[in-house]
Hints:
This protein is globular. The N and C termini lie far apart (89 Å). It folds into 3 domains: 1-31; 38-179, no CATH class; 270-410, Neuraminidase, CATH 2.120.10. It is mainly beta. Strands 1-6-5-4-3 form a 5-stranded mixed beta sheet, with no helix packed on it. A 5-stranded antiparallel beta sheet has the order 23-24-25-26-30, with no helix packed on it. Helices cover 9% and strands 43% of the residues.
Amino acid sequence: MTKKITIIxxxxxxxxxxxxxxxxxxxxxxxxxxxATSTSFTNNIFGFLxxxxxxxNVADQPINKVSxxxxxxxxxxxxxxxxxxxxxxxxxFVGTSTIRYANRGNGHIFETPTNSLETVKISxxxxxxxxxxxxxxxxxxxxxxxxxxxxNTIETSFLELRTKTGSTxxxxxxxxxxxxxxxxxxxxxSVNTDNxxxxxxxxxxxxxxTSNPDGSSPSSFSIPHPSWTLSWTDSNILTxxxxxxxxxxxxxYSISKTKNLMQEIDDNPGLTILNTPKRTLxxxxxxxxxxxxxxxxxxxxxxxxxxxxPEKCTPTDTTHVICxxxxxxxxxxxxxxxxxxxxxxxxxxxxxxxxTGESVITYTPQEEFDIINPQISSxxxxxxxxxxxxxxxxxxxxxxxxxxxxxxxx
Length: 410
């Protein structure tokens, strides 16, 4: 009886081994299980970057070939290029011809030329579940924000990417990590990318610190109320807006050199902003509807149509912004319902003239995009964005698209 059982077990083991061997031989894949966690705390801290994608897949799976050589290919580059299916924590242009991005699941960093489909890994330093990546020093270094494992502590770290000396074939960089204070609630990078500002809540106030990206040379001051959103103007002035909701009247303030608050935009419900050269683009919500306006340096306010959120826009020059614009906007409480993933948009890509109020359809995608983190290359040829629906990365060649329709504002 024992001998019979032994024969049966041996046969089962042999069959299982053969099955796995066949799977590997024909499909060359491993069997793995990806796990993900998503908490309301994460969503509250990281806003819309913690919403809409529970996928924390740590595998490195760009759309195109990954290699350790920077070989250009003769493959035709699509006008709208899908760079990676995996969620990204953030991306940037390095110069005019390179895109650099961070994998959200494991923090690995890649780059790809705009004129090639080749993708090169430049850092394999593993930092799990990176929710935000802020590129600094013209894209040469990066700041990661994440939750420490099994805690609600916000960790912020500066990664210096050092080129290896003496190697012409190894593109992997040495990484030096410097930690900034824990529980930074908001962080902004200056327009020239060489400075940062961040907020630490202290009791009923907020401590704002400006420093180098690695946290050195800090200068701090306090303001009332602990919960703010930071941004910089092109003239290196900080602006702040209280964390907002559709039922809360909020204003935008600039911070003078003497650290005084100066109100720039009066109370508006659900106020969100984008600083552009010489102007401020802002949206607000009234009766479950969304409105978009621009305030010029002479205090002239222009209503822009159709509406979108400033977070979906980026300046192309001193008078224009390019944006992801919803083809329809359902009635909802803005911006919080969009941050929380209660509503999602299907965007077209438009350019607004901030002097005349006109808008032009730049591109109508066939795919369904809810655009976030938009960027324009310094030569104005490429428009890069993340799709909020799955946090995948895309880039549009603007030289290969033409204007379609002009729509005047009200």
